[in-house]
Amino acid sequence: MTVHTQPVAEAPDPRSFGLPVVEDGSIPAELRSLVSRVHDLIDVVANTGADRETLAEAAAVVEDLTGRLDVDRRQIGTMVERTMSDGTTEYGTITNIVSGDTSPVAPPLFLERVPGGLRGEVTLNTIYQGPPGLAHGGWVAALLDQAVGSASAVETSPGLTAKLEVNYRRPTPLFTPLEVIGRVDRTEGRKVFVSGEIRAHGEVTAEATALMIRVQIPE
Ligand SMILES: CCCCCCCCCCCCCCCC(=O)SCCNC(=O)CCNC(=O)[C@H](O)C(C)(C)COP(=O)(O)OP(=O)(O)OC[C@H]1O[C@@H](n2cnc3c(N)ncnc32)[C@H](O)[C@@H]1OP(=O)(O)O
User: How many domains does the chain contain in total?
Assistant: First the structure.
């Protein structure tokens, strides 16, 4: 059994899998602003008490905008290349629902390298509500999957989640800064054993262990 947490391979270039890559600096500020405005719109629409006339007007405006924006769609699987704070290059799927630069649904969770793994902070609004005032358990799992999957990708090489076990210790609150952590515990060939947790006010609300299977790099 091989046990280590140091990189075991160079990060593969997604282009070698036939995936298009864009640099994060090339995403227009106007698109980032639009993504943020639409994120706010989703939250507002989910909670609005506006009158019927305003709702009908808004639906027509949004329908018109949807038509205008539905041009030159990106290829499915488009990746973003970014330089992390420690200078290393990493890739992520541009519409990743947890972390994607162009996903208006993403909270978004951005992770950075820290001693021992990856760490990010995120505050969830009512888009992610399950029980009243609390994060949906599926979204808690999604945050943890992203954190442990990214830790595995950064510390070893990218892979897919084969198994994810989540322990929900306490309710995860909305509108509260959450600390999300992922780390590699050990590797065994293509198997990467990972773990992570979410904390609110310093207390663990959920923790996960998972098994990632590293993708085979084409020759
Ligand atoms: C390209 C560049 C892009 C860069 C990109 C960067 C992205 C950087 C951030 C990503 C962050 C994303 C975070 C979200 C991650 C998801 O959301 S992934 C999506 C959800 N997961 C899936 O859809 C996976 C579906 N499952 C599968 O495709 C396949 O079962 C798997 C997991 C790929 C494994 O299949 P396989 O490659 O054929 O592997 P296989 O030979 O069967 O097994 C290999 C070993 O693992 C063991 N194993 C496999 N499955 C299991 C299991 N469930 N339980 C226990 N053991 C297992 C086997 O027993 C075997 O063990 P050994 O015999 O070697 O001891």
Answer: 1
C-alpha distances in Å from residue 207, one per residue of 12, 52, 59, 105, 203: 29, 43, 40, 23, 11
ipTM of the complex: 0.94
CATH code, 6: 3.10.129.10
Decide: 15 in ligand 1 pocket, CB within 6 A: no
User: 109 in ligand 1 pocket by Cβ < 6 Å?
Assistant: no
| Residue 161, ligand 1, Cβ within 6 A | yes
Rounded-to-integer distance, Cα 214 and Cα 205, Å = 28
Give residue-wise pLDDT tens across range 181-214: 999 999 999 999 999 999 999 999 999 999 999 9
CA proximity to 128, closest of 168, 97, 85: 97
* Domain membership of residue 182 as a residue range: 1-219
